[in-house]
Automatic annotation (TrEMBL):
It comes from Dekkera bruxellensis. This is DEBR0S3_02608g1_1. It is found in: Bud neck. The chain holds residues 95 to 395 of 505 of the full protein. It comes from the Eukaryota. Keywords: GTP-binding, Nucleotide-binding. GO terms for cellular component: cell cortex; cellular bud neck; septin cytoskeleton.
Length: 301
């Protein structure tokens, strides 16, 4: 049951369009190397989209040479209960490897988000609009280093650069390396930074006609932002005989799918099970619209 990803819920979320065309979702992941991005993606979609080195190799580089940030996409078709998901994950290797937070660190990523908007705008203005492919970024998972403290200048700068272009979802990476107390206090500090800096995050909406259970579930998700996540695709045996996805320590096992251990389940609810369609709609109706009208205004149209 752990392997059930949950996008089979999509037809329920996806009430407006035909199911036959399949469902596409474009997810961008940003964060420094080694924060567990690839592992988390594999765990979220229960598929090996990325190979993960168990012991990452060290490679020397000149610390004075800026590291270029590049864009790498992986696409995969995932099927569950006859529902097809065309998933594209956009990774940005090189991010966070420069000592400062100047433009070189984030510009290529902002450019990529804009480029995808521009491409859509161009397609949309063509005559045959029924064939418009939506390559826009529908959500951006931002991986915060588990320092136990607040945000770093690059975190703040990056989030400010993208928050009005994407549905921004921050996660505290590798949260198993922090104590429960550290997770709580760093969440508070991070949220305070986000508030003080005027950074807007994606928060799941509550609708007037939601029943009490749905309202409680949505609030339960919002409360956990920034999600403290743990990723693993390894199944291990617990002392009480269960088989779980997790990470093993001398003092015990951290379970990925256990809400007492981390916020992985809540993140998956937000991203996949309950609000994937919402993320796409917000991208199209609000974030893209804003970009589009600013662009047309600049062009004097
Ligand atoms: P990426 O560079 O951000 O894509 O990170 P990877 O997914 O390649 O993971 C880098 C290393 O961290 C690997 O050895 C993973 O096994 C390990 N790792 C991934 N997720 C976690 C986690 O949640 N906690 C811990 N402690 N290690 C993790
Ligand atoms: Mg990776």
């Amino acid at each position: 049951l752990n392997g059930y990803v949950g996008f089979a819920n999509l037809p329920k979320q996806w009430h407006r369009k035909s199911i036959r065309r399949g469902f596409s979702f474009n997810l961008m992941v940003v964060g420094a190397k080694g924060l567990g991005k690839s592992t988390l993606i594999n765990a979220l979609f229960n598929k090996q989209l990325y190979k993960v080195d168990s012991a990452p190799k060290f490679s020397y580089r000149d610390p004075n040479e800026p590291v270029p940030v590049t864009i790498e996409t992986v696409s995969s078709e995932i099927e569950e209960n006859n529902v097809k998901l065309n998933l594209t994950v956009i990774d940005c290797p090189g991010f966070g490897e420069n000592i400062d937070n100047t433009e070189v660190s984030w510009k290529p990523i902002v450019d990529e988000i804009d480029r995808r908007f521009d491409e859509y705008l161009e397609e949309e203005t063509k005559v045959n609009r029924s064939t418009v492919v939506d390559n826009r970024v529908h959500a951006l998972l931002y991986f915060i280093e588990p320092t136990g403290h607040a945000l770093k200048p690059l975190d703040i700068e990056f989030m400010k650069q993208v928050h009005d272009k994407v549905n921004l979802i921050p996660v505290i990476a590798r949260s198993d390396t922090l104590t429960e107390k550290e997770v709580e206090s760093s969440k508070q500090m991070i949220l305070e930074d986000i508030k003080n800096q005027g950074i807007r995050l994606f928060t799941p909406p509550i609708y007037e006609n939601d029943d009490d259970e749905t309202v409680a579930s949505t609030k339960g998700i919002s409360e956990k932002i920034p999600f403290a996540v743990v990723g693993s695709t390894n199944y291990i045996q617990t002392s009480d005989g269960r088989t779980v996805r997790g990470r093993s320590y001398p003092w015990g096992i951290i379970e990925v799918d256990n809400e007492e251990h981390c916020d992985f389940v809540k993140l998956r609810q937000l991203l996949i099970r309950n609000f994937m369609e919402e993320l796409k709609e917000t991208t199209g109706n609000s974030l893209y619209e804003r970009y589009r009208s600013e662009k047309l205004e600049k062009l004097g149209i």
